[in-house]
Amino acid sequence: MTYLSADERRRVIVDAAVRVIATEGLAGATTRRIADQAGVPLGTLHYCFRNKDELNLLILGRGHATMLSAFEGLDREAGFEATVREVVATYWRWIRDHHGLHLSLMELLMWAIRNKEAVLPGRDVWAEVNAPFGGDLIASALAAAAERDGLRTAVPVPELARFLIHRMDGLVLELAETSDEASCERQTLLLADALVLLALPRQGSG
Amino acid sequence: MTYLSADERRRVIVDAAVRVIATEGLAGATTRRIADQAGVPLGTLHYCFRNKDELNLLILGRGHATMLSAFEGLDREAGFEATVREVVATYWRWIRDHHGLHLSLMELLMWAIRNKEAVLPGRDVWAEVNAPFGGDLIASALAAAAERDGLRTAVPVPELARFLIHRMDGLVLELAETSDEASCERQTLLLADALVLLALPRQGSG
DNA sequence: GCAAATGTTGGTCTCGTGACCAAGTCATGT
DNA sequence: ACATGACTTGGTCACGAGACCAACATTTGC
Question: Which key words are in the record (chains A, B) (predicted)?
Fold first, then answer.
């Protein structure tokens, strides 16, 4: 095994861990299996990480970062409706192509929620792990698009972003349960429609 | 310990298991803890259930049944919009008041998905566990309400029902992550609005 | 080119925990 | 009193986490 800096080695192990957890689930992602997948002895793993909690958090971070990268190709010139549809479609494609991983990230998220205090005493797991992703990227993309259109949305953009993100969370379960890609894809179209309708100023109310 | 029929004993244990899983999570719901909570020795638990998988499935079923009962008071005379809002509000109240349980049910669901073949070889976990709940109850309530209004929805009612159910799934995570009830409640209002907008026949398209 | 720091190996040990089972005991109806 | 079903006890077996270690390899600074 080649010589790597501890940082590089950590990267390699976390990558392997992401692979393991995507296929085996959180419960099946034992330190031994991860070490095995990374091609390093167990001792190395304990040399690189204080404990499994630390590793888990890094997996969560890496997973979200991977997801983030799916949104890099977003068209930053498009109008509001086009942007909504593009974000939803991109998100959907990512889930479809990585649903094992996304499911596991949800398991990890639940784990983090349940072990908040033990894992990150006093800190806000959610804000730390997710805000850079959902909170910023999607909300700001939508806000910028709305601004380009001179659109003052009927519902605040951050609320629309959360609506989008968490409907997609539901979709992960839906896909895992039914394995019906066509139906799930139809749901994403529905979601895009809904977001557009919610955003447009309405006749009836303010 | 009093003598009970095996069926009664099973009921008691499943009840205890639901309590344990709601507070400790799936990983923390060990046979020992469950037996402890039920006030029976560990052996009794293995006397009553073939194995833990069987118990898990029963917990899942009980959890969903509990949830089902929240919808018993639905107004079966109301129109479409009122029914949508009532279903969403009822669902939301249940989640808010039982979010530990709902979170655990999602963990169990993931477990069932990952162990499909081992647990229910050949059978469809999802259809068996969830269809009686979401698929039937909510979809049929909405369909009946639409019919009362003479409303031919722009989107098929079953799709609206799935949209509703899985947006609520996302909400469970959202609530667990943020603990921000007010924000989550606003999201439910948004969801109801979206469903109504999606259902109404639109000007632009067919 | 040498020494010190850093990373690697592979193995072992303990500790806790989890699922599960076999053989026994007890209650209850007949 | 005795058969049967209901429960108890005490254990087995497997496995994961985490810690430790002693020798070995590779860099890096000097």
Answer: DNA-binding
* Cβ proximity of A45 and A35 under 8 Å: yes
What pLDDT does residue A133 have?
Answer: 53
Our measurement of CA B157 to C1' C6, in angstroms, reads: 64
Closest chain B residue to the Cα of A130, Cα to Cα: B177
Distance of CA B163 to the CA centre of its chain: 14
- Where is average pLDDT lowest: A21-30, A91-100, A107-116, B113-122? B113-122
CB-based contact, A173 to chain B, within 8 Å: yes
pLDDT at B205 over 50: no
User: Rounded distance, CA B94 to CA B171, Å?
Assistant: 12
Fold of B1-49: Arc Repressor Mutant, subunit A (1.10.10)
Task: List the single protein residue with the shortest CA to C1' distance from C17.
Answer: B30
A118 inside 8 A of chain B by CB: no
DSSP state of A120: S
CA separation for the pair A28, B129 (Å, rounded): 24
| Domain boundaries A63-199, CATH class | mainly alpha
* Other CB atoms within 10 A of residue B205 CB: 7
CA-wise closest residue to B136 among B103, B165, B106: B165
pLDDT for res A175: 94
Question: For residue range A37-67, what is the model confidence (pLDDT) as tens digits?
Answer: 999 999 999 999 989 999 999 999 999 899 9
C-alpha triplet B145, B151, B154: angle, nearest 5°: 110
How many Å from the CA of A124 to C1' of D27?
Answer: 39
What does the domain layout of chain B look like in residue ranges? 1-49, 64-199
CB contact under 8 A, A166 and B170: yes
> Is A39 exposed, middle or buried, given 0-12, 13-18 or 19+ CB atoms closer than 10 A?
exposed
